[in-house]
């Protein structure tokens, strides 16, 4: 603003139109994202992340832990029985998210960790695989948290992808080792 004020004091009024045109062209040339046909206007690609999650989920009802991207999703507003159909999870409604959704808060709390422990011992163990889908920091926190749980010690996990500041991490239990097949007459 100070630079504009100084230029306005020095430049004659009849040249302001040309200066504004030059500034506009300069902004487009140097500030435009010419390597993208349609440049993104935000850093959260929920659409592509949901598409990738659908491909991984493959039509099965896999548990999906979904931390809310909104800071308002914390106790007492957030609780384990909160519906994923509310405004705190609006991205799940807009970008068709597959699986059985387990809404998680924006940040951890003792109540959230009790809920996560209950899931690890129950629904997640029975399902044999699950995903964590949300903001990158939240996904990283819960990925580390679940990976540290003794119930999931033999499970594998990996990052399915980053989509701007949205991430997906997936966990799965390895199939139990099978007994070797004995061929021939082994007595």
SS elements, strand count: 5
- Radius of gyration over C-alpha positions, nearest whole angstrom: 25 Å
What is the strand content? 15-25%
Largest sheet: 5 strands, mixed
Q: Count of DSSP helices?
A: 7
Element string (H = helix, E = strand): HHHEHEHHEHEE
Describe this structure in words.
The chain has 187 residues and is of the alpha/beta class. The chain is 38% helix and 18% strand. The chain contains 7 helices and 5 strands; from the N terminus they run H-H-H-E-H-E-H-H-E-H-E-E. The protein has helices at 2-10, 16-31, 46-57, 90-94, 110-121, 123-127, 136-147, and strands at residues 63-67, 100-104, 129-135, 155-163, 166-173. It has a 5-stranded mixed beta sheet, with helices on both faces. Strand 1, helix 4 (90-94) and strand 2 (100-104) form a beta-alpha-beta unit. It starts with a helix and ends in a 14-residue tail after the last strand.
Topology:
Layout: H1 2-10, H2 16-31, H3 46-57, E1 63-67, H4 90-94, E2 100-104, H5 110-121, H6 123-127, E3 129-135, H7 136-147, E4 155-163, E5 166-173
Parallel strand pairs: 1-2, 1-3
Antiparallel strand pairs: 3-5, 4-5
